[in-house]
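Sequence in, structure out.
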Amino acid sequence: MDDQVLRPGDRDYVGALASGLEVLQAFDAEHPRMTLSEVATRTDMDRAKARRFLLTLHALGFVKRNGRQFELTPRVLQLGYAYQSSNQYRAVIQQYLEDVTAELGESSSLAVLDGDDVVYVVRSSARHRLMAITLSVGTRLPAAYTSMGRVLLAQLPEAELEAFLLRVKLEPYTASSITNANALKKDIAKVREQGYSIVDQELDSGLRSAAVPVFAGNGELLGAINISTNAARVDMETLMSVYLPRLQQAAEAVRRTTR
């Protein structure tokens, strides 16, 4: 097999599998339980098609039903566990991030790029909560508005970055949010040059974070790690002079201890 990515309509593309996964992904923190009609709306499927996929997932144990509502079962976790257990670096990175949290009292995470989002794959949480939503392994956030996202976007080949900038929808989450593609491109170029990203209250008011890329000893990009904090508690000088160097130290430790 080569690395060519199939598209819908290609001979080897299995549309039924793609649709089934789309139904699973329709459930999230804002939609933990849905009726058939709601699933059909969120996946842009007709009711008959959505019903077949829901009933099949129910038969396989990935979905349960309570009256007219459907919700995911813990069996879905097996899919994520397979990813976690197949990556030998997770436990190493987890320990380094926990050390960062213990030392600085702030949350630290590892994320990877998936489409136009970052997905949290390792998380060391501090006691205080930073956002309205609960951040945990599996959480997705827009790459354009997170420090880890901009670090990972800076690692993309130029053609892939240009494609991202053309398709991404930039929204004013806060008064500080970048909403111009050229401005975002300029910031990502700066991140690529300096090797780190600082995002200050662009996704959520009060949320300030720093991120750096993290590589294995063989040069493989493992993702981006960050420290996130509250702007009222940690000023920019402290973030740059204390938190960022500690984050860079953790990334270097990962590089030295992984192959």
